[in-house]
Design a protein that fits this description.
Blueprint (H helix, E strand, L loop, with lengths): L11 E5 L3 H12 L3 E6 L12 E4 L5 H11 L3 E4 L6 H9 L8 H8 L1 H11 L7 E4 L2 H11 L3 E5 L9 E3 L5 H11 L7 E5 L5 E10 L2 E4 L3 E6 L2 E7 L5 H18 L3 E10 L2 E8 L9 H4 L4 H9 L13 E7 L7 E4 L1 H5 L4 E5 L10 E8 L3 H14 L1 E4 L2
Parallel strand pairs: 1-2, 1-4, 2-3
Antiparallel strand pairs: 5-8, 6-7, 6-8, 9-10, 9-11, 9-13, 11-12, 12-15, 13-14, 15-18, 16-19, 17-18
The structure holds adenosine-5'-triphosphate, glycinamide ribonucleotide and magnesium ion (MG).
């Protein structure tokens, strides 16, 4: 039971991070009459454009986060990105604030070391072999032990930023420098992983709610330079692979707890399923659910957060998503080709409304449904390729 937004009885959700995923969370929350507050590091972020209010702060500044939480007193604090002052979230939770799904889940998944050690060492889930390194010398040693090719990632980064595949010792220094530039935080630490030759990779969206744990049908995806290009649902898997995937997702989400949606990233290999990483929030590859499910991953997240029931999740049709990315940095640009994209049958687009382009920045996505995955992928690709960015400078 709650009152209208902007009244003293309102139920309030405060998002920490206001990108394209948060924008959809805000819209779903508003459908249920919830008041929404969007916070991010820059003005006019996508979710800010649709929320009731917004704040621009350094997301790694704990004092700034605390100030806003104490002023707003939201019912739910909903992290939307990894790089947040998560120690402050842990303190706030101890003081009685609700963090989604939990402050510990936000803390552990913020850095690759926390979540990898929990998954591989505490829960003993199978993962790629890995090492951590703080210096180029340590990286040399780690890569020597794992062999080439190996994958190098800053421990604090997302969407492939600072990530590279290193094919020989001669490339190590360049990979190290790339990781130092790409990490979101000032920490210098990196993870090095053995390169996995997978057959496919999936996101298993897993929702923890008052109704228990529910799984969405698996989402297959293709990544380039560590960032997603296209995704589709359902991804074809054997009963055994689905069983292994759901068991891993159940174990790690039980351990992390709370209410909300998780994106469990898994590699499907000839020898079984490997755990890769997990987001305690909606997943970028899960945008496809806006075209395929009765309740999208965003609607599911909001229902779970508010402790409303999720009796069932229905897949209505096969579908696919395909991204539009920028290839230059500017704040003066226009997105064209929308008419062409929308003339593809059973296709929608989402234009995120980000105020600036950057090289590789995701600006929009095409979503298509079809009778089969092949056709859905083809439609989404044609629509996304019809879109273009015209830069004024
Ligand atoms: N050990 C590995 N072997 C082979 N490919 C890998 C490995 N690690 C990562 N990749 C590839 O790089 C992609 C991105 O890696 P990862 O998910 O760890 O990065 P990320 O920056 O957290 O991405 P996001 O935030 O988009 O989930 C993976 O989806 C996979 O395609
Ligand atoms: N893989 C995680 C992911 O896709 N997160 C989404 O991207 C935004 C950041 O985009 P930006 O870097 O373009 O500002 C985040 O706010 C979130 O919506
Ligand atoms: Mg990932």
């Amino acid at each position: 039971m709650y009152g209208s937004p902007l009244s003293s009885n309102a139920r309030k959700i405060l998002l920490l991070g206001s990108g394209e995923l948060g924008k959809e969370v805000v819209l779903e929350a508003q459908r249920l009459g919830v008041e929404t507050i969007a916070v991010d590091r820059y003005d006019h972020a996508p979710a800010m454009q649709v929320a009731h209010r917004s704040y621009t702060i350094d997301m790694l500044d704990g004092a700034a986060i605390r100030r806003i939480i104490e002023q707003e007193r939201p019912d739910f604090i909903v992290p939307e990105i990894e790089a947040i002052a998560t120690e402050t979230l842990q303190e706030l939770e101890k003081e009685g604030h609700r963090v989604i799904p939990t402050a510990r889940a936000a803390r552990l998944t913020m850095d690759r070391e926390g979540i990898r050690r929990l998954a591989a060492e505490t829960l003993e889930l199978p993962t790629a072999p890995y090492r951590f390194a703080d210096t180029l010398d340590e990286l040399l040693q780690a890569a020597g032990e794992l062999g080439y090719p190996c994958v190098i990632k800053p421990i604090m980064s997302s969407s492939g930023k600072g990530q590279s595949v290193c094919r020989s010792e001669a490339e190590l220094e360049a990979c190290w420098n790339y990781a130092m530039e790409g990490g979101r935080a000032k920490k210098q630490r990196i993870i090095v992983e053995g390169f996995i030759t997978f057959e496919s990779e999936i996101t298993l969206l897993t929702v923890r709610s008052v109704s228990g744990t529910s799984f969405c049908p698996p989402i297959g995806h293709v990544q380039k330079d560590g960032d997603y290009i296209e995704s589709w649902q359902p991804h074809e898997m054997t009963a055994q692979q689905i069983g292994e995937a759901e068991e891993m997702a159940q174990r790690i989400t039980d351990e992390l707890g709370g209410y909300g949606i998780y994106g469990v990233e898994l590699f499907i290999t000839k020898d079984g399923v490997l755990f890769s990483e997990i987001s305690p929030r909606p997943h970028d590859t899960g945008m496809v659910t806006m075209a395929t499910q009765d309740l999208s991953e965003f609607a599911l997240h909001v229902r779970a957060i508010l402790a409303f029931p999720i009796p069932a999740i229905r897949l209505l049709t096969p579908g696919a998503s395909h991204t539009l990315k920028a290839d230059r940095e500017t704040s003066s640009f226009r997105i064209g080709g929308i008419e062409e994209a929308l003339s593809v049958p059973n296709t929608q687009i989402r234009v995120f409304g980000k105020p600036e382009t950057k090289v590789g920045r995701r600006m929009a996505v095409a979503l298509s449904s079809a009778a089969d995955i092949g056709q859905a992928r083809e439609s989404a690709r044609i629509a996304a390729e019809a879109l273009y960015i015209e830069y004024d400078n």
